[in-house]
């Protein structure tokens, strides 16, 4: 038979509530590190414009289009490229091409690396494809749009939508957009870089080359032919070769 007067055990719930164990206390999660403060300044000629909602709609639609390269005739441009790094009547700007390796590449133009972008466009070509083409030789990108009426004062670089030709092939549409927070963060990280190429860590936790953000930054000579045509010639760092990349902006 069992003991008629068993010894009672202490109430576990009561003792736990009165004397909590220090080892079971939850450790607070540290807050995420703050984003670096932006030190980019406005370009000297920049005027603030309110973003137009319809352009955002265009951008979201065009970004959903696949990257296509049907054969198409390349629009005519004057032949030949400038020699050296000095072109009469031109100005120098900083151009940055960046994007995830299998994602679309973004072009950002700045007066210099310390300024806010004066132009941001997303190109309908994958970053790794552009890298391969530039590594293989000269690359021509043409951004084409329709001419406006004579009284229209819209500047060429303010056009909202373009058709892009990549080495003579129609690649799709390009939409100008306002610089987003991610664009500004990348420009801030690259602020000390005047020229060069490399990779930055991706924004996701997945490791691998496809997650890395590749970039290429160079000086470009900006040559204004008329109110309907401008050209960007990428300057070679050593100055003894012609441009590996030329970008044409033209109204036809």
Show the helix and strand layout:
Layout lengths: L11 H7 L34 H11 L26 E11 L3 E7 L8 E8 H10 L2 E7 L15 E6 L2 E8 L4 H9 L6 E5 L12 E14 L2 E6 L10 E7 L1
Parallel strand pairs: 4-10
Antiparallel strand pairs: 1-2, 1-8, 2-3, 3-6, 4-5, 5-6, 7-8, 8-9, 9-10
Short structural description:
The chain has helices spanning 12-18, 53-63, 127-136, 181-189; strands spanning 90-100, 104-110, 119-126, 139-145, 161-166, 169-176, 196-200, 213-226, 229-234, 245-251.
Query: How widely separated are the two ends?
Result: 106 Å
Number of strands: 10
What fraction, in percent, of the residue positions are helical?
Answer: 10-25%
Helix and strand sequence: HHEEEHEEEHEEEE
Which structural class should the secondary elements be placed in? Answer: alpha+beta
Percent of residues in beta strands? 25-35%
Shape: globular
Strand order of the largest sheet: 1-2-3-6-5-4-10-9-8
Radius of gyration: 27 Å
> Which whole number gives the mean pLDDT?
76
Major beta-sheet overview: 9 strands, mixed, barrel
Oligomerization state: single chain
Keywords:
alpha+beta; 9-stranded mixed β-barrel
Structure, described:
- The chain has 252 residues and is of the alpha+beta class.
- Helices cover 15% and strands 31% of the residues.
- The chain has four helices and ten strands, in the order H-H-E-E-E-H-E-E-E-H-E-E-E-E.
- Strands 1-2-3-6-5-4-10-9-8 form a nine-stranded mixed barrel.
- The protein is globular, with a radius of gyration of 27 Å.
């Amino acid at each position: 038979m069992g003991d008629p007067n068993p010894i009672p055990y202490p109430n576990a719930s009561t003792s736990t509530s009165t004397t909590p164990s220090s080892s079971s206390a939850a450790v607070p999660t540290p807050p995420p590190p703050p984003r670096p403060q932006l030190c980019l300044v406005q370009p000297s000629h920049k005027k603030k414009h309110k973003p137009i909602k319809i352009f955002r709609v265009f951008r979201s639609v065009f970004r959903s289009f696949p990257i296509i390269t049907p054969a198409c005739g390349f629009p005519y441009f004057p032949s030949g490229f400038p020699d050296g790094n000095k072109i009469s009547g031109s100005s120098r700007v900083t151009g940055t091409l960046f994007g995830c390796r299998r994602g679309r590449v973004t072009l950002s133009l700045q007066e210099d690396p310390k300024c806010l972008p004066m132009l941001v466009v997303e190109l309908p070509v994958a970053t790794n494809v552009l890298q391969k083409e530039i590594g293989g030789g000269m690359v021509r990108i043409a951004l084409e749009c329709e001419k406006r009426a004579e009284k229209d004062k819209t500047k060429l670089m303010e056009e909202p939508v373009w058709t892009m030709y990549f080495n003579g092939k129609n690649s799709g549409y390009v939409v100008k957009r306002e610089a987003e927070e991610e664009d500004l963060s990348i420009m801030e990280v690259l602020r000390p870089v005047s020229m060069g190429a490399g990779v930055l860590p991706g924004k996701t936790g997945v490791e691998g080359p496809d997650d890395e953000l590749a970039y290429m930054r160079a000086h470009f000579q900006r040559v204004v032919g008329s109110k309907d045509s401008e050209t960007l010639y990428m300057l070679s760092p050593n100055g003894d070769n012609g441009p590996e990349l030329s970008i044409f902006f033209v109204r036809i």
